């Protein structure tokens, strides 16, 4: 949950990118329209100039026309406005156009020259041009053309202006977006940090709310209201369950005492056997009530303030010593393998209780003659404890459910128990901030207790069941 969010996935970044893309698109469309309108206007001006020049030169007397054409070409030595006179065999008679443009119609209308026009001041480089050709009454052909590179230059100026405008807008926009994104990102980080204890079960925590009153604060307020209601309902349900378990213990204990006295009085009679069976059932109910109250006690996170430095190896030796006679009576080899372990901060009594529950389950569900191993090693982040057995194992689809209260899998329904052992283990693991992984080892089960807190951003599964890929060595 502490993983830093991707800055480009934030709403501010997306808005900046969207508005930047829309601005760039609109800028290109706007410049395109401006350039098109400018080009159309200037082409119209050039066309008018060409038509006027054609009308002026074309109205000259035939015997004076070559001189007029030469005079017009000398006025424009750079060939911006070119004039040419050709005979009916397309031979040049006058002007600065050496060759008659073959693709130019002789209809007296202005057209774009497909192959452009050479410029004498540019080493005969061909430039874009517009021109018109008209056939005179004597069969000669008069051609007038004008260079339109000025229009192309204006288009280049407009495009450069667009690039400068986009650059000078996007750069401050990105800088402003970066500054605007820092505030929401900081608030999201604060919300993430506030959700960590809530995710771990502390429903008394609330999300921070600033004085801005914006959408984030409104959402945080809604979540806080929801958390308050959830906390109230959870406390009510927990209180009802605890009260039922606590209040029923006294009458059940009295009932058992009375049944015991009755059994003593009926000793040797058939009714004594029935009473003994009733006492066994009452003992099972009392055991379940004690386990429920124990789970509720462990869910009180204030006990974490009493943690101290604990030697995990010493606790494991005590668990092994405690259960070794039980495993021996069942003909089960009970191995203990402890490597050098770093001390941890924990409650030694609770840690012993959790490991004892796990070892007890392994011995109980392993058939006589099977094998149980208790192994401890160091991971990269702390001690790891593995309890491996050769029993029936825990099916993959039940590994997240076995730590729920009263849950009993298909393999354990015929075995005595309350279904609360792993619930107690889960509560202890949560209290310490550790992790419990339920897997398989061959045909049996492997329960691994990781005696360290989760890494930033690491998400535990339901009931702290998860996998840790970097753990070595593998248990087979």
From TrEMBL:
Domain HAMP: 186-235
Cited SUPFAM superfamilies: ATPase domain of HSP90 chaperone/DNA topoisomerase II/histidine kinase (SSF55874), HAMP domain-like (SSF158472), Homodimeric domain of signal transducing histidine kinase (SSF47384)
Record GO terms (molecular function): phosphorelay sensor kinase activity
Catalysed reactions, semicolon-separated: ATP + protein L-histidine = ADP + protein N-phospho-L-histidine
Gene3D superfamilies: 6.10.340.10, Histidine kinase-like ATPase, C-terminal domain
Annotated keywords: Kinase, Membrane, Phosphoprotein, Transferase, Transmembrane, Transmembrane helix, Two-component regulatory system
One Gene Ontology term, aspect cellular component: plasma membrane
Enzyme class: transferase
Localization annotation: Membrane
Cited InterPro entries: HAMP_dom, HATPase_C_sf, HATPase_dom, His_kinase_dom, HisK_dim/P_sf, Sig_transdc_His_kin-like_C, TCS_sensor_his_kinase
Transmembrane segments: 16-36, 161-180
E.C. designation(s): 2.7.13.3
Residue span, Histidine kinase domain: 243-440
Protein name: histidine kinase
Pfam families, per database record: HAMP (PF00672), HATPase_c (PF02518)
Species of origin: Dyella jiangningensis
Signal peptide, first to last residue: none
């Amino acid at each position: 949950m502490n993983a830093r969010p991707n800055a480009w996935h934030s709403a501010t970044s997306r808005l900046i990118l969207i508005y930047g893309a829309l601005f760039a698109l609109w800028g290109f469309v706007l410049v395109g329209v401006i350039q098109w309108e400018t080009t159309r206007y200037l082409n119209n001006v050039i066309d008018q100039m060409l038509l006027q020049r054609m009308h002026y030169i074309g109205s000259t007397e035939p015997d004076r026309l070559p001189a007029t054409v030469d005079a017009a070409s000398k006025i424009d030595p750079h060939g911006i406005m070119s004039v040419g006179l050709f005979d009916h065999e397309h031979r040049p008679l006058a002007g600065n156009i050496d060759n008659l443009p073959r693709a130019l119609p002789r209809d007296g209308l202005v057209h774009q020259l497909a192959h452009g026009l050479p410029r004498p001041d540019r080493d005969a480089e061909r430039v874009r041009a517009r021109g018109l050709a008209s056939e005179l009454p004597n069969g000669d052909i008069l051609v007038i053309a004008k260079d339109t590179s000025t229009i192309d230059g204006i288009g280049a100026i407009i495009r450069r202006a667009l690039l400068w405008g986009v650059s000078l807008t996007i750069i401050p926009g990105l800088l402003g977006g970066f500054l605007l994104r820092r505030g929401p990102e900081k608030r999201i980080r604060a919300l993430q940090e506030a959700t960590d204890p809530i995710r771990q079960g502390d429903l008394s925590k609330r999300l921070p709310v600033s004085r801005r009153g914006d959408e984030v604060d409104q959402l945080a307020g809604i979540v806080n209201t929801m958390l308050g209601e959830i906390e109230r309902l959870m406390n009510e349900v927990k209180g009802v369950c605890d009260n039922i378990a606590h209040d029923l213990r006294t009458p059940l204990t009295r009932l058992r005492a009375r049944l015991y006295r009755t059994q003593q009085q009926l000793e040797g009679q058939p009714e004594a056997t029935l009473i003994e069976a009733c006492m066994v059932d009452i003992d099972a109910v009392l055991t379940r009530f004690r386990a429920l109250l124990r789970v509720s006690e462990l869910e009180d996170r204030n006990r974490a303030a009493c943690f101290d430095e604990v030697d995990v190896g010493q606790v494991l030796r005590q668990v092994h010593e405690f259960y070794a006679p039980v495993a021996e009576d069942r003909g089960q080899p009970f191995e203990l393998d402890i490597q050098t372990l770093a001390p941890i901060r924990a409650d030694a009594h609770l840690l012993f209780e959790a490991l004892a529950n796990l070892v007890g389950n392994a011995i109980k569900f392993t058939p006589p003659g099977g094998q149980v191993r208790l192994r401890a090693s160091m991971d990269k982040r702390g001690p790891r404890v593995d309890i491996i057995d050769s029993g029936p194992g825990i099916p993959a689809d039940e590994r997240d459910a076995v730590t729920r209260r009263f849950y009993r899998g298909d393999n354990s329904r015929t075995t005595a128990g309350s279904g609360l052992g792993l619930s107690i283990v889960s509560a202890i693991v949560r209290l310490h901030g550790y992790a419990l992984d339920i897997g398989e080892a061959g045909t049996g089960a492997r329960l691994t207790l990781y005696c360290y807190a989760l890494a930033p951003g690491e998400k535990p599964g339901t009931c702290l069941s998860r996998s840790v890929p970097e753990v070595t060595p593998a248990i087979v």
